[in-house]
Specification:
- By secondary structure, this protein is mainly α.
- Helices cover about 30% and strands about 0% of the residues.
- It has one helix and no strands.
- The longest helix has 16 residues.
Length: about 55
């Protein structure tokens, strides 16, 4: 006799607990970056990519 239903582990069938409220932001959303801030970030990124890495002491 064959069993056509899959074996289900009912210990794993419970729903996940709700996400922590700390994971959700309340209040004002972040402001978009200005063009000057974006340009500065690009410059710093390029500089960091060119600069050789130093080991921490």
């Amino acid at each position: 006799m064959t069993n056509t239903q899959r074996h289900v582990d009912h210990a794993l069938a419970y729903p996940e607990p709700p996400a922590s409220p700390l994971w959700h932001r309340h209040g004002a959303k972040a402001r978009p970056l200005t063009d000057a801030q974006k340009r500065r970030n690009r410059e710093l990124l390029e500089l960091a990519q060119r600069k050789p890495r130093t080991r921490a002491a």
